[in-house]
Amino acid sequence: MLYMSRFFYAFTVCAPSCARKQANKEEKTVKLTKCLAVGGAACMLFAGVGCNPGGYNAAPDEVVIWSTTGQENAAWLQEIGKELQKNEGIRLKIVATHGDYNSILTSFARGNRPDVVYVDDEYFKRFADGGFIMPLDDLIEEYWADSDLIDVDAIWGPAISRYRFEVSNNTSNADDPLWCIPKDADPTVLYYNEEALEAVGVTVISVDVEDMEAWNKGEIADANGKKKSDYPALAGTTGNIPARGYWRSDNKNYTSGETWEMPGSGTLLVFNNRIPMSWDETEDLAMLCTKKHNVNSDTTYGYYTEWWFNYGWSVGGDCIGDTTGDGDYVFTLNDDAPNYKVLEAVTVNGTSYTPGTEDAPTFLSYQDKQYLKEHSSEAQQFTGGGKLEEYPSTLDAFTRFCALSRTQSNSDPKGLEISPMPSAVADTWQAASRFNSEGYLAMFVGYSSAVKTLSDDYNWNVAPLPVYKTYANQMTGKVDQLGARAGHSKSTGLAIAAKTEKVEMAMTVIEYLAGKTGQTALAEEHLNLPNTEEVAMESYIGDAQGKNYQQFAVETRYQKPGDWWYMLDREWIANWSEPLNQNVNSVRNGGTTLKDYFDDVVANTNADLKYYKEQLGG
Question: How many domains does one find in the chain?
């Protein structure tokens, strides 16, 4: 009971800051009262769909599943339920929980449990920490070793790894317990309005990097079915179009900190929806599509992203860093230490590193780049010897992100005014809605699930997320530095309730839902992206109807869960996200400087991160 009380207090109905500081005792009492009131209301809401719908009174051939998804997914579940009853003699009893995880956790804690439960990646650590779900590794070996329906090794690596979790120290290593099987993936991509780009003179092509040479020679058509000569602006040109996400032939490519120049008459402007843009290219194209910079733009703003992820992660940074390797985290968006990409096998501060791939390079850990910051002579030896390459700091990357929406009159950082402020567009779903509005947004970062909301009144498409990239030669596109392909995706997992007496039947249900039977049906309904690349490419992307949907699969190969996944809840994020985004005087709204922002948020965030470590493991 002591452990359950701790879980209930800290994670189910109350945030860690409720117990963080003795000095704020009165404020904490108020917050705790509010949290308990919300928790009670949530349980009453859950009672509306059956606060006691658990599997204990189900028939012997029934498996109770609590589903958090809407009508479309309910139909998918019912379809797979028919297959289960036909082939396995299992009846699927579906209970809609409406995605209210506070009430779901409350119901679990009171002993009302299903056999199988949907768990979003943001929340699964709370289920594991509470002892509410089972680790699956031994069950997979026992029940699925010879399965023709599911191959866990074929599931997207970043999707499966996020459900590994060691409760005692908050790690997600390859040998940590697996708690859920991914039901789907929901990656982020760059959406763009092709008509808006063409209206400002941009030619949109669709050519993979490895095909650029053959396409430039006129030997092959691109994914749009067009050869180079089929594009009016490019027909008759003798030079090669370089392998870049966005290119302008006047060689006046924008570089951060410099003055943007409007392309002159006769300048070739080419956007390639198969190659990631650099940060500079993204800003260059966004300025062309922003009325503040180009009065002839059809769109008010050129670019919108709610998230810093593909900035910080692309150069090896993050919002937290482990100071010891044992889960002792500190807030790091203010970290000014250079990041280091590993070019050759090297040992730094006693840690051995090997190079990664071109799209997924290896960067030094937070601990080791801090070590090199304090030992600059060693850093110079590593970089001078070609073993490491210095990249922008996490602070540099975060500053770049913050500048997108700020005004040009702002300082620390000076703004670009190519993105709407959060006060005008609060999140990516509002951005998708405004993207549908004629003349507002040319490009935005959104989830794959946004395709169901986009209007067919104009020609929209998808492209890779921007990455950190610099060029040794702007005109040929020869790359000098290349960061990681980076972004985030969401996922829903399928878990087994810890006290179910129907483990074998529950494993069969997950085998159908997360295996080829369920995933093929999921793809055919064009719900979220299937959990394997094979099914995604065959059944989801293969029916793309002229859209560049292959980017959903490409991005999913590299995408991680968002920062809300890092801890048992997201209260620690509220410390710094509200003054970054939501407040009228927030950083991205231009109301405060980064220096003042960090002065206000770092200490409280570090206190919350320390609190999580103290509470882990009971």
Answer: 3
